[in-house]
Amino acid sequence: MKITSIILTLGLALVHTTSTAQEQSQAIPQEIQTTAVSNEELKQFANVYVEVQNESQLMQNKAVKLIEKEGMEVERFNELANAQNNPNQSVEPKEGEVEKLKSISAEIQKVQLDFQEKVGEIIQREGLTMQRYQEVYQAIQQDQSLQQKLSTLIQS
User: For labelling alongside 100, which of 38, 109, 119, 155 has CA 20 to 30 A away?
Assistant: First the structure.
């Protein structure tokens, strides 16, 4: 799995989890809303992004170690996990694999919860609230110039 795709997925999940209620209570369509983002906020967001990338890599390493510790290959774990989530995909588990899958999944879920907590801490440490982080994230998604500035900040 690519680190960026996990981060983007996480970013979307963080934004989606807490902004769904906000979106339901707002009468103004998102296309009309524009959020001003200061250079300082963009720098804070970039710092969060870089730190989350590092934490994501650590989380992935922990997950791989958990899988291997149970005596399963990562590819086989992914194959079984994907089949479990997709009823159209049929994969026949071997003896003992269902129990291993459940055990590993429970441990990985703990690692993911820990990761989410760390992301929240990183956001706060950088001086942003979760709500403001989400607003900046949405503004970046809608504004190409902000995307370019963010890319420059991340690369430097």
Answer: 119
